[in-house]
Amino acid sequence: MPPNRCLVILLCLTLYGLYYEATALGVNWGTMASHPLPPTKVVELLELNNFTKVKLFDADPLVLEALSGSKLGVTIGIPNTMLKSFNSSKKAAQSWVHDNVTRYVSNGGSGVRIEYVAVGDEPFLQRYGEQFHPFVIGAATNIQTALLKASLESKVKVVVPCSFDSFLSESGLPSKGHFRTDLNKTMIELLTFLTKHNSPFFVTISPFLSLYQNKNISLDFSLFKDTAKSRNDSHRTYGNSFDLSYDTLVTALSMLGFSRIGIVIAQIGWPTDGSANATSANAETFTKGLMEHLHSKSGTPLRPKDPPIETYILSLLDEDQRSIAAGSFERHWGLFTFDGQAKYRVDFGQGSKTLVNAQNVEYLPSKWCVVNNNKDLSNASASALNACSAADCTALSPGGSCSNISWPGNISYAFNSYYQQHDQSADSCDFGGLGLITTVDPSVDKCRFPVELRTSYSHCLHKAFLLRTMTLLVAAAILVS
Ligand SMILES: *[C@@H]1O[C@H](CO)[C@@H](O)[C@H](O)[C@H]1NC(C)=O
Ligand SMILES: *[C@@H]1O[C@H](CO)[C@@H](O)[C@H](O)[C@H]1NC(C)=O
Ligand SMILES: *[C@@H]1O[C@H](CO)[C@@H](O)[C@H](O)[C@H]1NC(C)=O
Ligand SMILES: *[C@@H]1O[C@H](CO)[C@@H](O)[C@H](O)[C@H]1NC(C)=O
Ligand SMILES: *[C@@H]1O[C@H](CO)[C@@H](O)[C@H](O)[C@H]1NC(C)=O
Ligand SMILES: *[C@@H]1O[C@H](CO)[C@@H](O)[C@H](O)[C@H]1NC(C)=O
Ligand SMILES: *[C@@H]1O[C@H](CO)[C@@H](O)[C@H](O)[C@H]1NC(C)=O
Ligand SMILES: *[C@@H]1O[C@H](CO)[C@@H](O)[C@H](O)[C@H]1NC(C)=O
Ligand SMILES: *[C@@H]1O[C@H](CO)[C@@H](O)[C@H](O)[C@H]1NC(C)=O
Ligand SMILES: *[C@@H]1O[C@H](CO)[C@@H](O)[C@H](O)[C@H]1NC(C)=O
């Protein structure tokens, strides 16, 4: 091969590398599902789709074992409920690091590449009030000290994922951005802590929630559409909601004197069900727009040519047990449905123009539970409401994919959801004699009646739970006697 052609190829490869390494792309993997895909299958899914980073919300041993030996960079999480004990006890922080970090990292080549420990899961969310907020800095400090003791401080960084509502601008103008005033003091402490340890600022950016909360923003502006009316902030022009939020944050950081701190987008995505505007078509447009923006490396008006260090998509999979305190869309953030099937096409710039589905997924039999139309249905609605309090009926919410199916189709939807969640056991389709098991798929148009996964994993959890309950019962019996 002539040397100049070699040079051209080398140059192309280098440029290719630079282009795609602009912002490392990761994905959030939550496990709040009644029938989660087995962790080994999820790791396979991540690898098939060439993701290089994954962010967890806890440190589930089965998940970490599945990640052992993979090349994925991992963020593990400390749930908010643990923050209080880690603030008050250095020892508790040390044993958590020992049991959930050291054990997996120091396993040589077969270990887990843990890059970050996320202290809390958006502990500053406004609706939590003061529940977790006072413990965050103390807990982060004690976890940092524990990592230092374990000689892991250069490998593993301590971060705190901040919610989309920890910063704001009343006028909607980025140049007037600031942190929520109740967080002033904590934010200065957090930013000082992060800077000292050379750790980035983890934050959620959510154009969907800005739209949902009706912040004077149009759908087109949220979806990166060229046709959207741009917004001016003195001499700066904003063409999309993402840039507007990002620069509102940049101003808030600058006001406290941390204008240069590195930013990691810990969560960004668009849900596909459970609310108006939450559709696969919108999610596809949003994700495509986001990817083009990140790959262009253009940055934002306040940080030109300086895109986020890393970006984690919310989320990998739908989760039917996620809290819906913020809205019914919360269970539908996945790029993939609960069973690992891609909802839309998206080019993450990692080789293929489409996502690859999970392989060899095992389902329960093709059976559904519906309402028996031959019965007196005057009390059926009460049964359905009852079912929905345990099962997932978010698709029935206004704007959801099943919001238009008429009564008693919606009762059937509720019954089926309950039945699938209970592994299709016959007694979970009773409903006082109103339920009927069928092998005919009751799905209509966009309203899909799911069949749940067959998963030994959830049975394991179930067994562990039973075992723990039994142990407690035995212990109680011994105490009583
Ligand atoms: C956090 O821990 C410190 C040290 O033990 C303690 O002084 C402080 O009161 C704790 N904070 C809260 C809010 O309990
Ligand atoms: C992590 O470590 C703590 C302390 O040893 C332990 O209580 C906890 O169960 C471990 N696992 C997870 C998932 O946090
Ligand atoms: C927070 O900071 C803002 C702007 O610097 C200031 O106006 C406000 O009084 C501060 N609030 C508190 C509680 O310190
Ligand atoms: C949906 O988007 C429109 C703008 O196109 C907005 O007016 C409306 O409030 C949004 N609804 C929800 C529930 O987000
Ligand atoms: C709403 O947005 C428009 C631009 O789209 C802007 O001119 C107007 O000032 C905004 N109003 C508020 C209250 O933010
Ligand atoms: C924003 O500023 C540009 C010039 O920088 C101008 O052409 C445009 O009309 C302005 N848009 C609005 C909505 O004021
Ligand atoms: C992953 O990378 C491989 C090798 O570069 C490529 O062949 C494949 O198409 C990529 N897959 C996806 C989903 O991007
Ligand atoms: C409906 O519920 C009421 C109150 O529980 C009960 O009295 C009535 O018999 C029920 N009707 C049917 C048809 O089951
Ligand atoms: C439900 O029906 C209304 C009115 O026919 C329509 O505008 C809306 O798009 C439908 N929603 C869904 C989720 O199919
Ligand atoms: C089903 O639809 C009926 C009539 O629109 C409504 O009254 C009832 O609340 C719905 N039930 C559920 C579980 O969505």
UniProtKB/TrEMBL annotation:
Q: Where is the X8 domain?
A: 367-449
As one GO molecular function, the record gives: glucan endo-1,3-beta-D-glucosidase activity
Q: Which reaction does it catalyse?
A: Hydrolysis of (1->3)-beta-D-glucosidic linkages in (1->3)-beta-D-glucans
Its Gene Ontology biological processes?
carbohydrate metabolic process; defense response
Alphabetized UniProt keyword annotations: Cell membrane, Disulfide bond, Glycoprotein, Glycosidase, GPI-anchor, Hydrolase, Lipoprotein, Membrane, Plant defense, Signal
Q: Which residues form the signal peptide?
A: 1-24
Question: What PANTHER family does the database record attribute to this sequence?
Answer: GLUCAN ENDO-1,3-BETA-GLUCOSIDASE BG1-RELATED-RELATED
Quote the protein name from its UniProt record.
Answer: glucan endo-1,3-beta-D-glucosidase
What organism is this sequence from? Trema orientale (Charcoal tree)
